[in-house]
TrEMBL record:
It comes from Isoptericola haloaureus. Gene3D superfamilies: Galactose-binding domain-like (2.60.120.260), Glycosidases (3.20.20.80). This is CBM35 domain-containing protein. Keywords: Signal. Residues 1-30 form the signal peptide. Residues 452-584 form the CBM6 domain.
């Protein structure tokens, strides 16, 4: 879900109401944090180097191309080609997807050739090591990759590995080995970029001595590197990064070197990763000094340093990294709440004059405060629209679909200034403030949805213990504490919550499960509701996020998570760490993605005169949008625009072309809708003008189309033909209690393809389990990805990758692209060169189900209505949703036999929703009545639709 978090107590409703205050108004008691931005004072072009990662990629496909493209690390540091330090993360194996998704430079840790940590030291370093260096460089030259995009680190942290006794003889030994390594690398590639000295921490004296020697010997590195790993780097004095950066630049000037590019190729600690409020402090330092920086590697390869959830989802920190990579134009002067002080409000500000857009990323203090922008009248305009978004901590393995706009306000630039109130969502939250010219239309208020959060440490606890998680080495926890030792039948945590209205809410639980799946019993107001199932995580303090719907009436309630239900102690693992619960209105089925907020490249203009803020793409120009999908399945991808002439765009989803029909741009106002399968998490959507004339596009929206899911063919693995060593095994976590193991070279699954799945583009979804690891590293978990080869009889073989998911019998769903070349060739699932993961079920879905074009010529109003029934607590709920397909606001009345509701001023593309409780376990067939009323060309127009639904029985 897209969480807009408010830390809540028993007065949650009152606190939430306070968020509706005007953006430009200061609260009664001023928040302590003030950040000032001067839009008239440029500090240089945006560099964008701080989202780099050490071992952030493990295999081609882990993480997904979508996540790489979104975070868009400029650099990644990976192991040497063929290196033995870790089982994956080979620089050559990840180079192609990295470069294809916006990456610039692969930094090669050459000592990761060795298997042990710290590296085993050869008796004769030069005799053993130099041939290895030459072979690595040659491997890149032989690979066909551009060698200019690789940088070589011959020694990693030499100050404590191999050369610790600096003044006891190791200094001279390092100088000799450095010169020899330098020469060995250059003997293979004269133009190779060499990085050094790459020390574990900044040491001004030894660095001075090293550079002096390198000058004399002609071995000065091309890129300077060292590491900044602790919270002290965010502070001042000699331990602060800014002080050390300036000390190095002064040293360069004194010695007559450079200035050299800098890569802080390991930064931050466990506490910082996936933690937006802490991460913004690191990003701001490195962007201010215009350096590359790679987040440290504390867990396992392939998860973008704790920002990739599973394979294709992002957490709250990933969205901050993506915001940073979205910045265009140049940075401008920003004065933080307090210079060089951890856990105060820090930020980055950028101005793009061509697009009349100012953007500020900030956060990091507990209380919030004020953002004061100067020079708004000179750069944006006298009247502006201000958008505020929030991204919060959701757990290292906790997905959030997409941050939504929390507030929009139209403000006058008083004396040239605009003041924006930053909410106090806690020190782990970060914010994006976007300032654009005011349009001629009324301000477009966002659909934020109600939500509140409750810390586990504040709950009423029985037989459970609060633990602090605040040290650098601790994984980040919400509020820096969590609740563990939940290991007796009496263990329980009870939360006092309050919700504003009757309805179905989403209960999101941040938890840690120590490599086991488990369950808790959910009680609401003392009544047992259901068992909640938690998937495994890396450990008790490594957080995932589980979401379940819960039916609540307006007012106060207790939510209790217990190790026992009415029948006694649960019969499964229940020692689950609890961190926080979120209670929120369900994410709407319609999500909006205005094109002016996407990444735009080429000859592009934005029309700020109307609320649509239409984007015009000249031939060859493109937009890149990262769409969050709350679940796997079909979505109507709706594109609106008003082009002067007919045109053509190529539309790709996760790199796959959706076809010519999806790319048609009609002349005049029109809506083009393509039904496409999207995977849960982040989907990259790219529109590229492939025609000869400019095209105008307002934006994109996705509308969940559950009826279209009937086009998916799904099968249980145990129901297929099992060949060789493939065998069915029992697990309570499998969808039907059974899964298949033994797949690989000597075992396979055979699926006689359904007749209606002919040749074409498909999405393959596999529910899999894989817990393979290499053992022995002192702090990294050396996880191993497994692969599945899908072979079509008469067609091709396609390989899909499945990263480690902590258990052998708990299953994650992962999608991959599959092109079928025959009309009915049998599909075989196995692996030609090793073991495949265990498989629970598989499905095949056509990539697209067609495109429709609506030019607006219609009778009545464009109103899409749907009804869905569901069971909660043994009772039926009838949920009615209506989507406004018009370009003007609409009043919508939803009515069933169980109640009615009118939603006023539903925005264009927005939706009205109500879940009506039947208060019984079954309902007869019936129909919902949906009436929309809007003013079109000065006249009031109404449309009424009757939506039938079948009888429904929860038993």
């Amino acid at each position: 879900m897209a969480l807009r978090r408010t830390t809540a107590t028993a007065t949650a409703v009152a606190m939430i109401a306070g968020l509706g205050a005007a953006v430009g108004a200061m609260p009664a008691t001023a928040a302590p944090g003030t950040v000032e931005v001067d839009l008239t004072r440029s500090t240089g072009e945006i560099y964008g180097g701080a989202t780099g990662v050490l071992y952030g990629l493990s295999d081609d496909g882990v993480p997904s191309d979508d996540l790489i493209a979104g975070q868009r690390p400029r650099t990644v540091a990976q192991k040497a080609p063929g290196g033995e330090q870790h089982p994956n993360g080979d620089a050559l194996e990840i180079a192609a997807p990295f470069f294809a998704n916006g990456g610039e430079q692969v930094v090669v840790y050459m000592q990761d050739e060795y298997s042990r940590w710290p590296y085993q030291e050869p008796e004769d370093v030069q005799a053993d090591y130099l041939p290895r260096l030459r072979a690595q460089v040659q491997a890149v030259l032989d690979s066909g990759q551009d060698p200019e995009r690789f940088a070589w680190v011959p020694f990693n942290e030499p100050d404590w590995i191999w050369y610790q006794d600096w003044y006891g003889g190791d200094r001279e030994k390092f100088f000799a080995d450095w010169d020899a390594a330098y020469a060995a690398i250059r003997s293979v590639d004269d133009d190779a970029l060499i990085v050094g000295p790459n020390e574990a921490h900044w040491r001004p004296g030894p660095v001075r001595e090293f550079l002096t020697h390198a000058q004399e010997s002609g071995t000065v590195p091309d890129i300077m590197a060292w590491h900044e790993l602790g919270t002290g780097s965010l502070g001042d004095g000699t331990n602060g990064y800014r002080t050390r950066y300036q000390e190095y630049r002064d040293l360069e000037a004194e010695l007559g070197i450079g200035p050299l590019p800098i890569n802080i190729d390991e930064y931050g600690n466990r506490q910082d990763m996936g933690n937006p409020g802490r991460l913004i402090q690191w990003l701001s330092m490195f962007e201010d000094t215009k350096v590359d920086a790679d987040m440290a590697f504390w867990t396992y390869a392939g998860n973008l340093s704790d920002h990739a959830v599973q394979t294709s989802m992002g957490n709250g920190g990933w969205w901050l990294n993506t915001w940073y990579s979205d910045l265009t134009g140049h940075t401008v002067e920003l004065t933080p709440e307090a210079e060089n002080t951890p856990d105060t409000m820090q930020g980055i500000a950028a101005l793009d004059e061509a697009r009349q857009t100012a953007t500020v990323l900030l956060g990091g203090n507990p209380e919030g405060g004020s953002l004061v922008l100067h020079g708004v009248d000179q750069t944006i305009g006298d009247e502006v629209d201000v958008y505020l978004e929030t991204t919060d901590f959701t757990g290292q393995e906790g997905e959030t679909s997409a941050p939504r706009v929390d507030r929009v306000q139209r403000l006058d630039a008083v004396g040239g200034d605009v003041t924006v109130t930053i909410p106090g969502d806690g020190e782990q939250a970060a914010y994006r403030v976007t300032v654009v010219p005011a349009t001629s239309d009324a301000v477009d208020e966002p659909e934020t949805g109600w939500s509140a959060s409750y810390e586990a440490e504040d709950a009423d606890l029985v037989a459970a213990q609060v633990y602090d998680q605040a040290a650098d080495w601790d994984y980040a926890a919400s509020g820096r504490q969590d609740v563990g030792s939940f290991n007796t039948p009496e263990s329980r945590a009870t939360f006092d919550i309050e919700v504003p209205a009757d309805g179905t809410y989403e209960l999101g639980i941040l938890h840690g499960s120590n490599t086991q799946w488990g369950q808790h019993a959910l009680y609401v107001d003392g009544e047992f509701r259901e068992r909640i199932t938690y998937s495994a995580t890396l450990g008790w303090s490594y957080r995932g996020r589980t979401e379940v719907p819960v039916d609540l009436t307006a007012g106060a309630h207790t939510i209790s998570l217990r190790a026992s239900d009415d029948d006694g102690a649960l019969d499964v693992h229940y020692d689950i760490t609890l961190d926080r619960i979120d209670v929120a209105e369900p994410e709407p089925d319609t999500l909006h993605f205005p094109l002016w907020r996407s990444r735009l490249s080429g000859d592009v203009s934005v029309d700020h005169s109307t609320a649509a803020r239409a984007v015009t793409l000249a031939p060859g120009a493109s937009s890149q949008t990262f769409v969050g999908a709350p679940e796997d399945g079909y979505y109507d991808l709706v594109r609106t625009g008003d082009s002067d002439v007919e045109g053509t765009v190529q539309v790709t989803a996760s790199g796959r072309d959706l076809g010519a029909e999806a790319g048609h741009v009609p002349a005049g106002a029109a809506t083009v809708t393509t039904t496409v399968y999207l995977h849960r998490g982040v989907n990259e959507l790219v529109l590229t003008n492939t025609g000869d004339t400019p095209v105008s596009i307002d934006g994109l929206r996705t509308v969940r189309d559950r009826d279209a899911d009937a086009s998916t063919a799904q099968v249980e693995a145990e129901d297929l033909v099992l060949e060789g060593e493939a065998a069915a095994q029992e697990s309570r976590w499998a969808s039907q209690g059974t899964y298949v193991d033994g797949l690989g070279q000597n075992g396979s699954l055979v699926w006689e393809r359904p007749a209606d799945l002919g040749a074409g583009e498909y999405v393959l979804n596999v529910a899999y389990a894989n817990a393979q690891v290499n053992l022995g590293h002192p702090y990294n978990t050396d996880v191993v990805s497994r692969f599945v080869d899908t072979t079509e009889d008469g067609g091709a073989t396609t390989r899909s990758v499945y990263r480690h998911n902590y258990t052998w019998d708990g299953f994650w769903d992962v999608t991959s692209g599959l092109t079928l070349e025959t009309d009915g060739g049998t599909l075989r699932f196995g692996r030609s060169d090793g073991a495949a993961p265990n498989i629970d079920r598989l499905s095949l879905s056509p990539l697209t189900l067609g495109t429709t074009v609506d030019d607006g010529a219609q009778d009545g109003l464009a109103l899409e209505a749907s009804v869905q029934q569901r069971c909660l607590g043994g009772r039926v709920f009838v949920a009615v949703r209506a989507v406004n397909g018009e370009d003007v606001p609409m009043d919508v009345e939803l009515s069933t036999a169980y109640g009615s509701r009118t939603v006023t001023d539903v925005d264009p593309g927005g939706n009205a929703y109500r879940s009506f409780p039947a208060r019984t376990g079954s309902v007869p067939a019936g129909e919902a009545t949906v009436t929309g009323t809007a003013t079109i060309d000065g006249e009031e127009v109404s449309t009424t639709e009757q939506v039938p639904y079948d009888a429904f029985d929860c038993s």
